[in-house]
Amino acid sequence: MNETTTGTDAEGFDGFKFRVVLLGEATVGKTSLLRRYTENSFDEEYKQTIGTTFASTDVNITDDKGTNRVVRLVIWDMGGQATYKELRRQYMKGASAAIIVYDVTQPESFMAMNTWYQSFREVCPNSIAIICANKVDLQGKRMVPVEPGQMLRDWFQAAYYETSAKTGDNVNEVFTRVAEEVFRSRNSDSGAPQM
Ligand SMILES: Nc1nc2c(ncn2[C@@H]2O[C@H](COP(=O)(O)OP(=O)(O)OP(=O)(O)O)[C@@H](O)[C@H]2O)c(=O)[nH]1
Ligand SMILES: [Mg+2]
Predict the structure, then answer these.
(1) Greatest alpha-carbon span in the chain
(2) pLDDT in tens, 114-150
(3) Nearest atom, ligand 1, residue 28 CA
(4) I want to staple 186 with a disulfide (CB 3.0 to 4.6 A). Which of 3, 75, 153, 155 is the partner?
């Protein structure tokens, strides 16, 4: 099963809880997207993520029957420079979803998307993937237009969002979409148990 509904946890939460991982090259804005979403803040200064951190956040969604649901996402953020493959595999294991991020001003980060996607698929063959084309506020510096992003979307069969952690554009939409999709697919088997 892909979900934990194992009664009330230590904080008194008795709803649906899912593990989500942020993937993508260093500096694409993974930590910034997470901070924008969880703290509504943004820092221009780059502080490389060493190892992994996580944030837990509750998302309100409406299910297919129109019932309001609270979905808890435990979102893991790993530094894109962490190259040790086994570590990455452990990090991805049991994830219900991945948000795979590139920077529209850095074509290399777009070129790396397939590698990130494939390594996620190896560990989590049935989990949800969402693509983030981040830093769209940097219009004059944009090198990767919309069309290649849409190609990825079709190829990965994943939702595609153009985001800015700086302005907040589409950031809430990404995390709400993740919560909706993992909730909807909660009965599908994605392998490993939850954290
Ligand atoms: N203009 C702009 N800058 C951004 C945006 N998102 C992130 N940045 C900047 O890009 C740099 C890297 O952002 P991080 O969020 O630390 O990137 P990361 O993917 O977590 O990097 P690692 O932890 O090394 O993997 C920082 O200087 C951020 O301020 C964005 O949407 N727009
Ligand atoms: Mg980071």
Answers:
(1) 50
(2) 999 999 999 999 999 999 999 999 999 999 999 999 9
(3) 19
(4) 3
Crossing angle for the helix pair 30-39 and 171-184, to the nearest 10 degrees:
90
From 32, 100, 171, the mutation candidate for ligand 1 (largest count of ligand atoms within 8 A of CB) is 32
Q: Give the pair of three-digit tokens for residue 159.
A: 């939702």
| Ligand at shortest distance from the CA of 32 | 1
Helix, strand, or coil here: 72?
A: strand
**Can you give the pTM of this predicted structure?**
0.91
The first and second tokens of residue 95, run together, are: 């994830």
| Alpha helices (H) in the chain, listed in sequence order | 30-39, 85-92, 107-111, 113-123, 146-156, 171-184
Taking CA atoms only, the protein residue closest to ligand 1 atom 7 is 29
Which ligand has its closest atom nearest to the C-alpha of 164?
A: 1
Options 3.40.50.300, 3.40.50.1010, 2.40.440.10, 3.30.110.30; which CATH number does 4-186 get?
A: 3.40.50.300
Question: How far is Cα 158 from Cα 130, in angstroms, rounded to an integer?
Answer: 5
Ligand 1 center from residue 32 Cα (angstroms):
5
